[in-house]
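In the laboratory, one determines a bound structure by crystallizing the protein with its ligand and collecting diffraction data. In a computational setting the workflow is compressed into a single prediction: the sequence and the ligand go in, and a structural description comes out. We illustrate the idea with iron/sulfur cluster.
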Amino acid sequence: MAKIIHDRKRCIRCGACASVCPEMFEMSEKDNMATLKNSKENNGVFELEVDEAGCAEQAASVCPLKIIEIESL
Ligand code: SF4
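The predicted complex, in structure-token form:
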């Protein structure tokens, strides 16, 4: 199990995460910021628990602001 944490409010809309991991990230049509699909907001960040982090690892490594984190559970 892993928890993906996305500090969405700091997103600069570069699109890198959605490009390497479209299964989990998409760019919002509303505000053009990245959205972690199916996540829930918790204290201002968005979180999603998954069995395997999968391509979220790549998303975390390409994000220029390092606002995507993977926590092992
Ligand atoms: S890679 Fe980071 S800064 Fe770029 S869209 Fe994704 S979350 Fe936002």
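The mean pLDDT is 98. Keep in mind that any predicted model is a hypothesis to be tested, not a measurement.
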